Amino acid sequence: MKNQSPKSNASPSQAQGRSLPSLGTAVRPPSGLRALRSSTPYSQGAVLSLSLSASICLGVCAEAPQPISAPPTSPPTVLPTLVVAATRTEVPVEKTAASVSVISRADIEAKHYTTLDEALQSVPGLVVARNGTPGQATSVFLRGTESNHTLLTIDGRRAPSMLAGGYDWGNLALDNIERIEVVRSSNSALHGGDAIGGVVNLITRTGRGLKSPEHEVSFEGGSFNQFRESVASRGAIGRFDYSLGLSQFNAEYPRDNNSYRRTGVRTSLGWETTQEIYSDLKVAYSLSEGGSPGALPGVLTDHLERESVTVSPGITWEVSDVWQSKLFYTFDNQFQPSFDGGPDFGSLNRLNVAAHLVDWQNTFIVHDTWKLTAGTLWQDQAIDRTTTSLFGGEINQNLQALSGYAQSQWSPTEALAFINAIRFDAYSDYASAVTWRQGVSFRVPEAKTLLFANIARSVSPPTAQDLYFFGNPDLKPERALSWEAGIEQPLLDHQLSASITGFQHLYHDFIQTPIALANIPNASSEGIEFALRYTPNPYFSANASYTYLSAYDDIANVRLLRRPRHQLGLDTVIKPMDKLTLSSGLSWIVDRQDATFPPPDFTATNVAIDDYLLVRSTAAYQITPHVEVWVRAENMLDQQYEVVLGYPALRLGVYGGVRVQF
Predict the structure, then answer these.
(1) What DSSP string runs through 43-110?
(2) Of 251, 315, 250, 307, nearest to 284 (Cα)?
(3) In CATH, what number is assigned to the domain containing residue 545?
(4) Is residue 3 one of the residues assigned to a domain?
(5) Contact (CB, 8 A) for 385 and 351
């Protein structure tokens, strides 16, 4: 920024109306691009009373809740929440014409989330399905779409997918994450076929703009011999800034062959080359290993190790006041050696997935009310599997894609916004595809009612696993037509917000996992989301959400797997005294089905699986401005349940920890 100091790395709840860092963008005076930046009851009385001490779960298209802090000296001002993932540019949520949730750093620390899958369980309409205990295979289902229909980006850069598509959601630690954006609307026109359901964008912490370094050390231990240690540091020295987070996790879970440990490192290095050019380097490393007991206790003794390395240099150039250009390169390598030492198999498997991505994006200010974004993306994914197993076979494949996209954001008035996007994808193994998205949002001036709607077309090619690993090389790309419409109404001087959103995905040639033997000609997922947010004062905040979902194979008239018909969430936070914060969350999952394979023909058959109600709670006490201690409990009702059929989840767990900041 010319003649100005760098922008700080404040979170949305700390920004006080300032625009957020735009993924390493060099800061300029407020003109051109910068000038556009302005943000069924359950019969457990004890459970409901505990849930009145919980933390914030953001509702549908709502502003981020204000943090619990000392009383303000003047009436609070409602500020827009700024997000990046919905449009690939930084805009207020209300102008995205999409359903967006934001989990801030304050939320992560208040609830003591440690991994991404833990944090995502607070998002309306999103279901996390893990094969039993932490560290096992984890899927997410967003509004009934498949797990590989939710794209993960980190600082706006696409994270390369695994063999089965999707990501290692359960092994992504949050040590160096500033906030999480979740777009729950179809966004393939900007992000490709992986975003039929939506986008999860992680924004990493940086030291940019800090006047003095910040350091942190934390430790937590408790049930199941679970221990977690982490170290973090960030700061700036002249034009150079840095951020580093390291963590180690160990646990011994109750089932045989169910130990788990994970080591993670995430760092960000930045250099303000000139006043117009900012360069950065994002590096992440993760190593996890442990037993994989499978769905048959006492039979399988698999040992699985996952190692991932990601290196992503990037450059952001403020070419002029009306033109910004970003160029990123990402290399990602995922290596999985596993040994099946069971008496029935005794096989050795090695899987390596290497990906290269180049992403070039340009944003132009045509007028104060009109912004254009255009870019191109090249992807190359090489999959190699060697095995002595009789199942799955060896794989040696290479998949490539070259894409171009363009988006128009037009706001003829402050209250009205139109979004139009189109994309062209050329695939190495499939016919080219054109996708698009149209959206509109309007804030009624006097009533402050927010109305929004969008419609999108998406095309998603089969994953490598769908094609080659117990799959079918003749599978066709999936196609989807998606729409949603919503309304949000602030009340009581913005202390209360109520919203309702209807949505529908219509699929052709749908591919359902874990069964990918053939395309389903027609399938659908549709439903309604309700959300309430209440923040009467700085000492209390409550959020509630309910999602009704109907997801079907329309040809066979059977339910799609692992999608609950009813999902209820309730989160509150209370600060009874200045140094004490009590938080908890409730999640009720009702009416699900999974697949079983009964003899004699072992044909996949849908079966109902039990409902479950989970309650978590945390009490944190700030001993000094630099030292915090906490105790938290997971599954407080000690529910015996399975999210995935045959994989028991953890029972009641209690943990305690300490954090020192200096």
Answers:
(1) S-HHHHHHGGG------TT-PPPPPP-SPPSS-----PPEESTTTTS-EEGGGSSS-EEEEEHHHHHH
(2) 307
(3) 2.40.170.20
(4) no
(5) yes
Please give the tally of structural domains in the chain.
1
2 part of a folded domain: no
Backbone angles phi, psi at 596, to 5 degrees: -130, 165
* Closest C-alpha among 526, 531, 525 to residue 543: 531
Q: Which of 386, 405, 532, 396 is nearest to 456 (CA)?
A: 405
Structure-block tokens of residue 537: 């004062």
- Distance from the first to the final alpha carbon of the chain: 29
- Is pLDDT at 18 greater than 60 in this prediction? no
Distance of CA 141 to the CA centre of its chain: 11
pLDDT band at 347 (very low <50, low <70, confident <90, very high): low
Handedness of CA 589, 593, 595, 598 (dihedral sign): positive
How far apart (Å, rounded) are the C-alpha atoms in residues 348 and 180?
37
The pLDDT tens digits of the residues spanning 456-477 come to 999 999 988 788 776 788 899 9
The answer to whether 67 and 108 are in contact (CB under 8 A) is no
Reduced to 3 states (helix: H, G, I; strand: E, B; else coil), residue 499 is strand
* Domain span holding position 104: 45-661
Reading the block at residue 532, the tokens are 């309430």
- What's the rounded Cα separation, in Å, for the pair 516 and 4? 55
Nearest to 561 by CA among 521, 519, 518, 604: 604
Q: How confident is the model at residue 295 (pLDDT cuts 50, 70, 90)?
A: low
- Amino acid occupying residue 56: I
> Residue 187: which residues within 8 A CB-CB, separation 6 or more?
85, 86, 98, 151, 195, 198, 199, 437, 456
**pLDDT value of residue 139:** 92
pLDDT band at 208 (very low <50, low <70, confident <90, very high): very high
- Provide DSSP, 263-330: EEEEEEEEE--SSSEEEEEEEEEEEEEEEE--SSTTT--EEEEEEEEEEEEEEEEEEETTEEEEEEEE
One-letter amino acid at 556 equals A
Q: How far apart, in whole angstroms, are the C-alpha atoms of residue 145 and residue 507?
A: 10
Tell me, rounded to whole angstroms, the distance of Cα 420 from its chain centroid: 24
Q: pTM of the entire structure?
A: 0.86
Q: Tell which wins on pLDDT, 340 or 46.
A: 340
Q: Which residues neighbour 85 within 8 Å (Cβ) at sequence distance 6 or greater? A: 100, 153, 156, 181, 182, 183, 187, 199, 200, 201
483 vs 555: CA distance, rounded Å: 21
Cα angle 524, 165, 466 (rounded to 5 degrees) comes to 75
Give the alpha-carbon dihedral of 362, 367, 371, 376, to 10 degrees: -30
Q: How much is the pLDDT for 338?
A: 67
Lowest-pLDDT choice from 317-321, 389-393, 496-500, 550-554: 389-393
Establish if 22 belongs to a structural domain: no
User: Quick check: is 497 in a domain?
Assistant: yes
Going from the C-alpha of 514 to that of each of 152, 471, 604, the distances in angstroms are 20, 10, 10
Instruction: Write the pLDDT tens digit of every residue in 104-145.
Output: 998 898 888 989 999 999 999 999 999 999 988 899 999 999
